Design the sequence.
């Protein structure tokens, strides 16, 4: 791979299906060393437990604040808004290390990955001044309110409505699968502000205070009993004019642009990485066969390839592009790989999964990953929907 050019490619030179060839600069090596040293300290504190899905299940606001003290939350936000003023590639290195370690990052995850960049791009100056420094300090946590009961894959058919009031908007509707709404401070909610024949028009985004009157959070428990997701009921919630995010009616355009942040990061292929680490530790205690090593080698090659694609999306974001098609491709490949990783682990080392085994042991981690694996290809957009996005991107350049 060739090193990154001092002048990154402009947004106009990146086609919807191009992936810049990326080699991380020397500065990221030092950054990676710093993050690993920090993680060693946190392991000694007992906060980093090496669990899969740590960006969804690892809620630890104190850990988020300690990251923020080092400038590792809101890294890509400008310094004038409290951020570190660094690039998406440097942020990538930090979150890659955190996810590979299974660190508890879910408290600040959506704020850092999605809400902060969205407010920076579409928000008013007042919104930027208020929210971004708090996000970068690890003291303001966001959820995303998109999906609805009958509007999962067909997001444009959302039924949540925002009606004009004397000094703002009144939101009525229910959002489903709203991660962290029982813990977070705000949610960015997609609602219909105008009735039009084109269902993609007339949508707008709002920043909703999750402690406001009329907000009701109902738990959606997983089969394991865990409480990560919620039904977010908006029962006549009054939202001031100043909490409209972006332009009225531009919600669809804003949401589709934001999905590149959500779909392309290393969480789309590293959610189960701690299980692979556990497998290698287990194999280190026993003789291995050529067949076992071959399967692990194939898995490692796929991980390496998807990582290169994901890094390419980060480089495109640094260049100011909106790599929606590339992001969809990374998520499709990455979430399928996560399922393959579990299958490979089971075939290479046929240890029975046991949810009641010692926490952090290989049988317990395997049981955890198996239990949650059906959701890998659903959350953040089903693979079927993603392939439609990829197809449209390809058709644009036939």
Sequence:
């Amino acid at each position: 791979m060739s090193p990154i050019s001092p002048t990154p490619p402009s947004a106009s030179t990146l086609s919807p299906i191009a992936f810049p060839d990326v080699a991380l600069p020397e500065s990221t090596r030092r950054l990676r060393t710093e993050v690993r040293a920090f993680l060693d300290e946190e392991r000694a504190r007992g906060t980093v437990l090496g669990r899969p899905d740590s960006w969804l299940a690892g809620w630890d606001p104190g850990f988020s604040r300690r990251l923020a003290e080092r400038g590792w939350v809101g890294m890509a936000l400008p310094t004038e808004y409290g951020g570190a003023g660094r690039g998406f590639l440097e942020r990538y290195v930090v979150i890659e290390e955190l996810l590979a370690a299974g660190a508890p990052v879910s408290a600040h995850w959506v704020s850092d990955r999605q809400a902060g960049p969205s407010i920076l791009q579409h928000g008013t100056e007042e919104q930027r001044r208020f929210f971004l420094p708090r996000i970068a300090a690890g003291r303001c946590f966001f959820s995303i309110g998109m999906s609805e009961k009958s509007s999962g894959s067909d997001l444009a058919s959302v039924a949540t409505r925002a009606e004009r009031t004397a000094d703002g908007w009144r939101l009525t509707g229910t959002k489903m699968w709203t991660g962290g709404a029982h813990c977070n401070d705000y949610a960015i909610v997609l609602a219909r502000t105008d009735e039009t024949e084109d269902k993609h028009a007339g949508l707008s985004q709002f920043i909703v205070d999750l402690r406001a009157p009329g907000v009701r959070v109902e738990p959606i428990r997983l089969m394991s009993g865990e409480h990560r997701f919620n039904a977010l009921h908006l029962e006549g919630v009054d939202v001031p004019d100043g909490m409209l995010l972006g332009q009225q009616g531009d919600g669809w355009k804003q949401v589709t642009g934001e999905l590149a942040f959500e779909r392309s990061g290393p969480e789309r292929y590293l959610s189960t990485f701690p299980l692979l680490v556990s497998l290698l530790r287990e194999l280190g205690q026993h003789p291995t066969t050529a067949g076992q090593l071959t399967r692990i080698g194939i898995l490692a090659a796929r991980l390496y390839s998807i990582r290169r694609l994901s890094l390419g999306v980060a480089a495109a974001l640094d260049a100011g592009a909106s790599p929606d098609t590339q992001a969809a491709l990374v998520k499709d490949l990455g979430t399928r790989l996560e399922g393959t990783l579990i299958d490979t682990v089971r075939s290479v080392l046929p240890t029975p999964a046991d949810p009641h085994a010692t926490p952090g042991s290989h049988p317990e981690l395997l049981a955890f990953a198996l239990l949650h694996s059906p959701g890998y290809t659903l959350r953040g957009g089903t693979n079927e929907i993603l392939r439609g996005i990829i197809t449209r991107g390809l058709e644009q350049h036939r």
User: Anything to note?
Assistant: The chain is about 45% helix and 15% strand. The first strand starts at residue 142 and ends at 145. The first helix runs from residue 26 to 45.
